[in-house]
Amino acid sequence: MSVSLFERLGAEEGIIKIVDDVVEAHMNNPVISARFTPYLEQPENLARVKSHTVNFFITGSGGPQVYNGRTMETTHRGMNISAEEYMETMDDIFMVLDKHGKDAQTKKDVLEILWSLKGMIIGK
Question: Can you give the pTM of this predicted structure?
Answer without folding.
Answer: 0.93
